[in-house]
Automatic annotation (TrEMBL):
InterPro entries: TrmB-like, Tscrpt_reg_TrmB_N, WH-like_DNA-bd_sf, WH_DNA-bd_sf. It comes from Paenibacillus glacialis. This is Transcriptional regulator. Residues 8-74 form the Transcription regulator TrmB N-terminal domain. Transmembrane segments: none annotated. Gene3D superfamilies: Winged helix-like DNA-binding domain superfamily/Winged helix DNA-binding domain.
Length: 286
């Protein structure tokens, strides 16, 4: 009973309104006198509450004396309330003043719950395109949200590490072999999202480190993430087309190229360690 009253109050009803509604739902059609007597409160307060709820459409009232009030069917009540809430939320979202100067170009989000909440919120708002670079662990956490987006006609462009998932579209592309990295570098799995080419999240999540992400609407960061995605796509296509020629000229994992730029000492310019590119999997429908 108290929990029901609590949720009715959360929906905007006063304490008295919530009690009157629950009482009528349990009693059926009743007069103001009967409701007041059952609740043990003053009749004037109950009469005022009944009239207000009736005017708002939450109660039916009969003709004659005494006037008898009855609740809407539960499904009618919840449908009416949800419609009002959606209308109010839509109005607030469209009309709330926005100060562009107060919007930080970059801000951080820490913790799994906050990161997933931010991603879920933006994925639900996506209208045209979602570009995703994730490990399969993170992909599985957002599977339902991404499937709903795809169901709305949003285009999904994927990069995953090839883990087991039932997501309908994914692309396996070259990635660093984590077995060749230092333990501290393997602590987290990197991920990035670009939504409608305006909103971006770039972060790291792992079992031995705190989850942290950076969110931005800065166009330069969006451009960089999309450029990285495009370059990896092009490299993947080239490997499938002329991979044997590349391997013959530069080595099976292109060490001669990668060693120039990966693991370089920032002062001497000398490569301190090699890097390995995993073999690509097969591209499914993208």
């Amino acid at each position: 009973m108290e929990q029901l009253l609590h949720h009715l109050r959360n929906l905007g009803f006063t304490e008295m309104e919530a009690k009157v509604m629950v009482e009528l739902a349990g009693r059926g059609p009743s007069s103001g006198y009967e409701v007041a007597k059952s609740l043990g409160v003053s009749r004037s307060n109950v009469y005022t509450t009944l009239q207000r709820l009736s005017q708002q459409g939450f109660l039916h009232s009969s003709q004659g004396e005494p006037v008898r009030y009855s609740m809407l069917k539960t499904e009618e009540l919840t449908h009416m309330i949800s419609g009002q809430v959606r209308e109010s939320l839509s109005f607030v979202e469209s009309q709330m003043p926005r100060s562009v100067t107060d919007q930080p170009p970059f801000y951080s989000v820490e913790g799994d719950d906050k990161i997933l909440a931010a991603l879920t919120r933006e994925l639900e708002r996506a209208e045209r395109e979602i570009v995703i670079d994730v490990c399969h662990e993170e992909a599985s956490l957002l599977r339902s949200e991404l499937e709903r987006a795809e169901g709305r006609g949003v285009k999904l462009l994927w990069s995953t590490d090839g883990g087991e998932t039932s997501l309908s579209r994914h692309m396996l592309w070259p990635g660093w072999d984590s077995s060749q990295m230092e333990p501290s570098e393997c602590a987290g799995r990197k991920f990035s999202f670009v939504i409608d080419r305006t909103w971006s999240m770039l972060g790291m999540r792992g079992d031995t480190c705190s989850s942290v992400a950076m969110v931005t609407v800065h166009p330069v960061m969006t451009e960089l993430l999309l450029s990285h995605f495009t370059q990896e796509m092009v490299l993947y296509e080239m490997e499938n087309d002329i991979g044997n020629e590349l391997a013959e000229r530069y080595g099976s994992h292109y060490e001669q190229i990668y060693n120039k730029y990966v693991g370089m000492d920032s002062i001497t310019g000398n490569s301190e360690k090699g890097s390995v590119v995993q073999e690509s999997g097969e591209v499914e429908d993208v």
